[in-house]
Structure formats: C-alpha cells, structure tokens
Amino acid sequence: MPESPEDRQSELESLWYEIAQAIAAGRTQGLVCPECLSEGLEVEEQQGRTTVRCPNCKRFVEVGIATA
Ligand SMILES: [Zn+2]
Fold first, then answer.
1. Which runs of E-coded beta strand occur in 1-68?
2. pTM
3. Distance 37 CA to ligand 1 centre (A)
4. Could you give the CA distance from residue 19 to residue 44 in angstroms, rounded to a whole number?
5. Residue 1: its pLDDT value, please?
6. pLDDT digits (tens, 9 = 90+) for 7-64
7. What does the DSSP 8-state code read for residue 27?
8. What are the CB-based long-range contacts (under 8 Å, 24+) for 32-37?
9. How far is the CA of 68 from the centre of ligand 1 (A)?
C-alpha cells in the first residue's frame, strides 16, 4: 500500500504526540526519538513554547502543550 505524504505526516504527528504527552506529564529525561529511536531528546521551553530536538537525527519539533 503506497503511503501518501499526508499519511506520513499524520503518522509523524501521532508519534510525536506521545512525546508531547510525556513532556506534559513532566517527563523530560530518557525520551526516545520516535524517528531514529535514539535516546536523549533535548526538551527546551522558552516563551511559553516547548520544543524537542533530537541530537542524533537533528529532528526539531515544536510540541503544543496546553498548560492551563
Ligand atoms: Zn532522532
């Protein structure tokens, strides 16, 4: 079954959603990159935005977390 770019995108979003949930729960250590499966994601918060960076594959994702 061929994958469309849209499928790939939503797949990525659901992968990173789990990371966002973990961070929202206060877990920022020992997170595993869902794309390259390397441990050690770097979580950074600034100006109310939370970003996650993978030092291995250089993936950079902004995770939307409701902190109400
Ligand atoms: Zn990675």
1. 42-46, 49-53, 60-63
2. 0.74
3. 6
4. 13
5. 61
6. 877 887 788 988 999 998 999 999 999 999 999 999 998 888 899 999 999 999 988 7
7. -
8. 33/57, 33/59, 35/59
9. 29
Quote the CA–CA distance of 61 and 68 in Å, as a whole number.
Answer: 21
23, two tokens: 């961070």
Domains of the chain, residue spans: 5-63
- Alpha-carbon distance 40 to 31, whole Å? 6
Between the alpha carbon of residue 37 and those of residues 16, 46, 48, the distances in Å are 12, 25, 27
Task: Give the distance (Å) from ligand 1 centre to CA of residue 3.
Answer: 21
- The amino acid occupying position 11 is E
Cα of 15 from ligand 1 centre, angstroms:
12
